[in-house]
Specification:
- This protein is of the alpha+beta class and 279 residues long.
- The chain has a domain of 147 residues: Alpha-Beta Plaits.
- Helix content is 35%, strand content 16%.
- It starts with 6 loop residues before the first strand and ends with a helix.
- One iron/sulfur cluster (SF4) binds next to helix 1 and helix 5.
Length: 279
């Protein structure tokens, strides 16, 4: 089998009818309870006043970032980005530190508190149905969507399709493909007729969080090492000065001359008188 191109989803919010078939498909495909699937429907739901109603909902799952912040934050390499798109997780390496949860700007990974830390810890998130991609299939949620609100293919093609729909329907869509650049670019692309915030999407910077942290860390470590060197040098100088001061101020120790001990004459006299009285 020839390796696949870099894959991505395209979600079109104008086509989603909030039927949640994608959630059911995810639950069945991944053998997880419906209230604990790797996908959830986010967004403002029905908004406006009759008859001017609007719907804003989106199947929310891992964005499969091109530079995944979760992978960058993980200290034991439990996360990796596959060449064909999915960001996957190896539970056997996980130590349960949950750095990935804090690092993800989209709030995606969640910790399985039922397993806790005593068992093998488990972080749960969408896998892009990587096992289905391995046999040339597409994600279960995409295959199930009855309105084609979800599509799947090479990221290049999905991006072109998103831009073509925006260009062909002036005024229908917001003129922006969410995920083209957010957090350094993602493999989940979204187009919408309502503000992206109404779909529950955060306003994240274009530069990936891990790129920023790596730039900061690359400057922080040399600075910390340099500063440690300065402190060590100062401590050395202080120690040398203290030793010098101790030498200067130390008193001379003289040996006392030994003198013969004479008995106290008064005491002897008193004792003699006392003896005389007693006699
Ligand atoms: S959305 Fe979060 S969990 Fe998914 S790849 Fe990006 S950083 Fe990792
Ligand atoms: S790609 Fe697979 S794991 Fe991810 S949300 Fe869709 S069905 Fe669930
Ligand atoms: S299956 Fe399709 S239409 Fe239904 S909620 Fe999911 S994305 Fe929307």
């Amino acid at each position: 089998m020839t390796p696949r191109e870099f894959q991505a989803y395209l979600f079109d919010a104008t086509r989603c009818i909030d039927c949640r078939a994608c959630m059911v498909a995810c639950s069945v495909e991944n053998q997880v309870p419906l209230d604990d699937t790797r996908i959830w429907v986010a967004g403002a739901g029905i908004t406006g006043e009759y008859p001017n109603l609007a719907r804003a909902s989106m199947p929310y799952h891992c964005m499969h970032c091109i530079q995944p912040s979760c992978a960058s934050a993980c200290p034991v390499g439990a996360w990796s980005k596959r060449a064909d798109g999915p960001v996957v997780y190896d539970s056997s390496r996980c130590i349960g530190c949950r750095y990935c949860m804090n690092a993800c700007p989209f709030g995606v990974p969640h910790f399985d508190w039922d397993k806790g830390l005593l068992d093998q810890p488990l972080i749960s998130k969408c896998t892009m149905c990587a096992h289905r991609l391995d046999v040339d299939g597409e994600p279960a949620c995409v295959q199930t969507c009855p309105t084609d609100a979800l599509s799947f293919g090479s990221r290049k093609d999905m991006l072109a399709e998103a831009k073509a729909r925006i260009a062909a329907n002036p005024g229908k869509y917001i003129d922006h493909v969410y995920g083209e650049h957010e957090n350094g670019g993602t493999s989940y692309l979204i187009i919408s007729n309502v503000p992206f915030a109404d779909l529950g999407l955060p306003d994240v910077p274009q530069e990936s969080v891990n790129h920023t942290s790596e730039v900061v860390m690359s400057g922080t470590i040399p600075f910390a090492l340099g500063w440690a060197g300065v402190l060590a040098a100062v401590a050395g100088v202080v120690r040398l000065r203290e030793r010098g001061m101790k030498k200067q101020s130390a008193p001379e120790v003289k040996t006392a001359e030994a003198k013969p001990i004479e008995p106290p004459s008064e005491t002897v006299a008193v004792d003699a008188a006392t003896k005389e009285q007693a006699e």
